Target: NAD(P)H-quinone oxidoreductase subunit J, chloroplastic
Amino acid sequence: MQSRLSDWLVKHELVHRSLGFDYQGIETLQIKTEDWDSIAVISYIYGYNYLRSQCAYDVAPGGFLASVYHLTRIQYGIDKVEEVCLKVFVSRNNPRIPSVFWIWKSADFQERESYDMLGISYANHPHLKRILMPESWIGWPLRKDYITPNFYEIQDAR
Model:
């Protein structure tokens, strides 16, 4: 069984891979980085007009980083919304993914947090800078290979 979006992508020969369904029956699809821009636009046009959340995680020490998008298709007059989870995996050596800020404005702070914590750079994001850590912070704190500095700058709390 595939989601309607997955069926549509197969029909139009757009490359993706199903990673299965979660406990709520929501399908997770793996999207190639080079296809993410077009599949994001297609998802929006297909009706996934709400970005419920975007997050990122480190898959394994020295391995890939993942940017995860939970999309919801909300249409007037339907009782049950459709949801899909899209994952884009990138190399930690060059973690660059096209931003979807221009499609879903709610991606703004979420992509910035993923950048701040894991170092994933979102191409064409208009405000890509640290959001939680100070600008002077070195490294990406949520990467599994992150080495915590043995010093912390004491800051005036005034």
Helices lie at 4-11, 33-46, 107-118.
